[in-house]
Amino acid sequence: MHMADALLSPAVGGTMWAVSAGAIAYCSVKVRAEIDDRKVPLMGVLGAFIFAAQMINFSIPGTGSSGHLGGGLLLAVLLGPQAAFLAIASVLVVQALFFADGGLLSLGCNIFNLGFLPAFVAYPLIYKKIAGTRPGKIRLTVAAVTAAVVGLQLGAFGVVLETTLSGISSLPFETFLYLMQPIHLAIGIVEGLVTAAVLSFVYQARPDMLPAPAASPRHTLRPARAMLLVFLSAALLTSGVLSWYASARPDGLEWAIAKVTGQEQLAEPRSGIFPTLASLQRKTSFFPDYSLPGPDRPATHEAAERGAAASASAADLGTSVAGIAGSLVTLILASLAAFLLRKRPGTA
Amino acid sequence: MARIDAASLDITQLDRLALGDTFLHRLDPRAKVLVTAVFIIAVVSYGKYEVTALVPFVLYPAVMLAQGRIPFRVIARKAVFVLPFALAIGIFNPFFDREILVRLGPLSINAGWVSCAAIVARSLLTVAAAIILVAVTGFPSVCWALERLGMPRTFAVQLLFLYRYIFVLVEEGRNASRARELRSAGKRTMGMSTFVSLIGHLLLRTWERAERIHRAMLARGFTGEFHARREFRFTGTDLLFLLGWSSLFMVMRYWNVSRIFGNLVTGIFR
Question: Could you report the predicted ipTM of this complex, rounded to two decimals?
Answer without folding.
Answer: 0.88
